[in-house]
Amino acid sequence: MDEGPPRERSSLMKGAKDIAREVKRQAIKKVGRGVDRVQDEHSGRSYFRFEEDEDDDMYARQSSFADETDDGPNDDASSDATEGHDEEDEIYEGEYQGIPHQNSGKANHLPVAGGVSGDIGGQYADAVERQSDQEQMAQQYELTLEECGHGRFQWELFIVLGLALMADGVEIFVVGFVLPSAEKDLCITDSSKGWLGCLVYLGMMLGSFVFGGLGDKLGRRQSLLICLCINGLFAFLSSFVQGYGSFLFCRLLSGIGIGGVIPIVYAYYAEFLAYSKRGEHLSWICMFWMIGGIFASAMAWAIIPHYGWSFRMGSEYQFHSWRVFVIVCALPAVMAIVALTFIPESPRFLLENGKHDEAWMILKRVHDTNMKARGHPEKVFTVTSIKTPKQMDEFIEIQTDTGTWYKRWFVRFATEVGRIWVTFKECFSPPLKRNTFKLMSVWASLAFSFYGLTVWFPEVIKRLQEQDYHRRTKVFDKEHVEGFTFNFTLENMLHRDGEYINDKFLGMKFKSVIFENSLFKDCFFEDVTSTNTFFKNCTFDETTFYNTDLFQYKFINSYFLNSTFLYYKKGCHIDFSEDYSAYWVYFVSFLGSLAVLPGNIVSALLMDKLGRIKMTGGSLILSGISCFFLWFGNSEATMIGLLCLFNGLSISAWNALSVISVEMYPTNKRTTAFGFLNAVSRLAAVFGNIIFDASVDVSKTIAVLLASSVLVSGGLSSLRLPDTKTQVLM
Questions:
Q1: What phi, psi does 566 have (nearest 5°)?
Q2: Neighbours of 631 (CB within 10 A)
Q3: Which CA distances in Å does 49 have to 101, 146, 354, 389, 535?
Q4: DSSP labels for 228-240?
């Protein structure tokens, strides 16, 4: 009877020691994780943390066994099976179905109590715990993707996301292809044409930033659907508008929609790829941008020159073939929208936001689809649970006067904008700050030179065409024509000191024809159209003009005696430069897009072997060196060859930069950071277009030196980036 109280005291003492030991162990683990976080600075983690946990558990079990040996059996103490074991690591009965442990939700949403100092300490502890959870989840997720394998599901996703990327490639070429025809329908002056290209790029810049941020909040799939819907809708509407202002507005919104495609597509696809496949297959999907360029060139070649593909409603509404081309170019976006309805959300995004069940079901679908395609449908998905990071509670404070729906909507909208802005600022905080600035410089260097030369090459080739065209100008001096009817086209001619008496010009066209010091007496002009045609120091005596486009500005220092102008042709009173060969323009764009194919293949095969950094730096430096050969481009064939060479060399840098930008940032910041970097490249493209376009009229040397120096400096800067080849996708 006297031994009872001492045994109870011994049991209580042992229990207190166990509790103290467990508290000390958990505290050491948290401190160790915090130290690791500071030292590693967001580098890829290995399995050391799991090994430490196992060592701690082994030590606890050994300690428990030793205590029981010394003190004997204790009915009140914990059993060997549970001593030193974390309850959160246990696997319970329903976990094989993808249902998370019932206590995990409570553990992931612990409130922070205490005063100001307690709140700060609690927030830091939560951040440290969340960081540790994310690192564990990254390791487990990579192993899960390895078990799911690479097969039919990834290839189906490859096609669907490729269509979205193809829509982006088409958008780049649409404006350049429709301008020669649209400028006549919409009465676009040379000074106004530049706004169209700039607004499209500015729209892409805005869309990249906005939808990149939404991709980390709403999800990859939903944000991509919104982007494509905006692009497809306003691209379709732009084919019907009749005014230039309305056309600009529609193309601006279309650019905003397509701007968010690139950052979301790459992040979306990367999160379904294991690191052993990521570099190669992200490079393969870049080929759809090339396919978009080929598709746009082929459709322009087949549709725009055929003006029979048009109709007219009354005298005002005209629907010409270039509008049909704009509708056809919206098809990739529409096809991608339809296909995306059958594709699930990124499971990595769902896990990041604590949606374990949905993520598990998607990963199981990936596994079952791939195994069935390989002929092994009996294989079971063995992953039962994946670690989800601690969720940080976010509260939206709605005041009592926020009773109407639009006020509530505004509060939620402002809150989402604030969350996106916080995520954006975190990209410029350690340890991401330095790498973000490095990537900005490399993206800007490549985009400035690439898009600038994209404008410069066609303009230089066009100048060479004009020089060759004018060298073949036919000159007629002091000709005398009387009583003759001109009902055919006059092209590339110079008539000087001529006399035209009682002649008729009926249903004809003047193309690049100039009359100097000539006399027109008793002549009749009817239903005449003209391009680049002028009358200089000419005299018109008793001459009638009926239904012509010979407007006043085409008569330079000319004199009219008893002459009459009746019924000018309707439309723009602007003389457009002649499009020497529409087929030739489309063919050159087709060759430039096709030249990207070898670079795509090389980058896909060597991305994982050489590494992302070497691929980026080497491609940029070689592209810069190739620009020096532009000094020797004195013919059309030479310039076309140099264009193809430059495109083929630079595409590897685009591919590698995209892979680096995906792998450099964690999941909750991936599309925000990538969207911002893509926005920087679009802004650099605008400046590149302006500067290189101006250099066409100044000197070829400026363009060569500018492109070469910017590309080489960008390549050298890229070599200072950390290589992400073997980094676990955080």
A1: -125, 130
A2: 11
A3: 22, 21, 21, 15, 85
A4: HHHHHHHHHHHTT
Within 10 angstroms of residue 700's Cβ, the number of other Cβ atoms is 15
Task: Count CB neighbours of 257 within 10 A.
Answer: 25
Which is nearest to 268 in space by CA: 229, 227, 233?
227
Give the residue ranges of the chain where pLDDT is below 70: 1-130, 133, 190-191, 194, 306-318, 390-403, 405, 570-583, 697-699, 723-730
Give the span between the Cα atoms of 164 and 292, in whole angstroms.
10
**How far is Cα 71 from Cα 82, in angstroms, rounded to an integer?**
18
Distances (CA, A) of 40 to 132, 345, 424, 427: 12, 31, 22, 17
Closest by Cα among 617, 697, 611, 681 to 649 = 617
Q: What's the 3-state SS for 427-457?
A: CCCCCCHHHHHHHHHHHHHHHHHHHHHHHHH
**Structural Rg of the chain based on CA atoms:** 35
Could you tell me the maximum CA-CA distance found in the chain, to the nearest angstrom?
Answer: 145
pLDDT tens-digit profile of 652-701?
A: 889 888 888 888 888 888 899 999 999 999 898 888 888 877 777 666 77
Q: How many Å apart are CA 546 and CA 565, to the nearest integer?
A: 6
Question: Residue 223's closest CA among 233, 232, 210, 204?
Answer: 210
How far apart are the C-alpha atoms of 458 and 589, rounded to whole Å?
A: 9
Q: Crossing angle of helices 275-285/287-303, nearest 10°?
A: 10
Phi, psi of 677 (to 5 degrees): -65, -40
205's tokens: 């810049």
Chain-centroid distance, C-alpha 368 = 31
Chain centre to alpha carbon of residue 373: 31
Whether 580 and 472 have beta carbons less than 8 Å apart is answered as no
CA distance 269 to 281: 9
And the tokens for 716? 């050298």
Task: List, for residues 466-485, the tens digit of each pLDDT value.
Answer: 777 778 889 999 999 999 99
Is the full-model pTM beyond 0.85? no
